[in-house]
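Hey, I'm writing a tutorial for new members on how sequence and structure tokens pair up, and I'd like a real worked example in the thread rather than a made-up one. If someone can provide the structure for the chain below, I'll link this post from the tutorial.
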Amino acid sequence: MKQWYEMSPSTSRSAKKLSRAYGFESPGALADSLPQNALVVDVGSGKSKFGRSITQIRPDVHWVNVDLRNGRMRTTRRFQAKAPDNLHYVAGNALNLPI
């Protein structure tokens, strides 16, 4: 039987659509709403580009994309190698994050 996190939906929605889903007009408006030096943990995001959009706008914001599927460690490392310093990719249990 699959674990609940293995059944989580994945999305390829754009940063603009995701921002609107959270009640903001644009990724910039969402980024502007975050406090200085905010830490955002996006559980279940995997390799989502949403965090990349926000961290490019706000270099002081630290964003963690959590992929709940442990088997994706190699993919996670590949994305981390290309990520800005304030964007982190983590694979594994969201209750046991290295942050």
